[in-house]
Every structure is written in C-alpha cells, then in structure tokens.
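The pair is quoted verbatim as follows:
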Amino acid sequence: MNLPPLPAVMLEPLVRTALLEDLGRAGDVTTDAIVPADQHGRMIFSARQPGVVAGLDLAALAFRLIDPAIEMEIKQPDGSAIVAGDVIAEVSGSARSLLIAERTALNFLCHLSGIATATHSVVTAVQGHKAKIVCTRKTTPGLRAVEKYAVRAGGGSNHRFGLDDAVLIKDNHIAIAGDIRTAIERARAYAGHMVKIEVEIDTLDQLEIALTVGVDAVLLDNMSTEDLRRAVTMVGGRVITEASGRVTPATAPAIAATGVDLISIGWLTHSAPVLDIGLDVLTS
C-alpha cells in the first residue's frame, strides 16, 4: 500500500500532550522505584487478534520524545494486514524509558489500528462494486488528522476534513433556509469557483430539485436500497452520489450494489473498537 506518512510536525503536539497527561507532576514513580537507571530493555509489539496496522509513527514518537536513544524497528508497517501472533515492531533502549512511553504508544497504536481494521472490514465487504468507503467529521476532538489517516490505512477514503473544505448543506441548513432550493441558491451565490457543493437529500422529490438547481454531489441519507437505486438512476452520472445511515459490513454490499459512488460511515472513527496489541518484554 502506498500510504504517505503524516509529517512529524503534525504528530508531535498530539503525542507530547498525551505523554504530559500521563507523566503528571512527578513522572513514572513506579518505574523509577523499581527499574535501575542503567538497565537496558527490548520489547515487541505483537498482535493479539487479526487486523490492520495504523499509528506506528505516533508510537515511535512517544518513545523518542521520552528518550531519543530508543530504537524502533518496524516489522509490519502501517496498512499491513496482520494475524494474531505477528510481531509488528521491536523497540530497544533504556528500560525506564520504554516503560514510561509504553501506554501512550499503545493507546495511539491500538486506537488507530482499530479504525484501520474497521475500515478494512467494510472495504472488503463492498469489493466488486465501485463504491468507496469514506469517513466523516465524527472524530475524537484533536485527533481528526490521525483518525482520518487510519481510515486511509484501512483502504478507505476521506470525506471533508472540516467546515471549510466544501459546502455541505444538511437538513438543519435547509430547515433554517426554508426549503432546499433556497439553501442551494444561497450556497451557490456565496461559494467560490473552487468550492464544491453537496446537499443532503431525504426524498426523491428533494433530489429532483437539487439536480434542477445544480450541485456537485448529493448525500442520500437513510434511504432504502430501492430508493437509492432510483436516486442513482435519476442522477444518471451527473453528480456524485453518497449514501449514509446505519451502514455496517453486513448492509454495505446491498448499498454498494445500488451503484452509489460513496458510502460514508461515522462509526469508523467515533466508535470503532481498538485492536488488541500487546507490548511485551523480551527476556532472552
């Protein structure tokens, strides 16, 4: 997988904040009490269940910020499919430093690998159809960039990153504007020539209006598969079609079979379970 890494300058504030939160006011009193300052250690990240890896750069940075002398050898890079028992990476250096950074490194790696794994499960479910799986803005505050990176590691794609990426007219915008036509016309008058306009569609009647006024994409929200097929036929390739609402690996194939271009899923980032990864001391 060609997965460009995120720049370290984006990652360091996140990892530094997490480490400071863990270290508190006195550092790791347990490790300082038990582990001699000169003791060397080696540890391995190992998978305890199958999944897809994401977040190794953040894990490595957690160790380096505590101790630049720590070395980390990656065995399974981000985007790799792993099975239980696989060694993902090995770290070595001061045993104290390894233990201090251990939890922060695992928190990032397990969380982001969980997102990548969840994404991969849906991407696999829709293979054979053209639909791409995309995430949403339903992300953990402060972690959007890395959570969306994890979606890419799992084979998915990203929706907009923020409110300034594109115009996305939702149901509440329409309610305040009074009707869907007025909302689209106001957005078109405001947006620059580089800004795409997407509108949330609840009914086929709304879709007809949106197509008449003119948009770049339509978000077909919580529609039945039958209505999704009708909507795709009505669109006829003129705009991008995106389906959303209660999508799971079990329901995704039928949604993809309707011919939509995108399937957006909020739970990929807001509630994907972590991937169980251990960090164990090598004693030999």
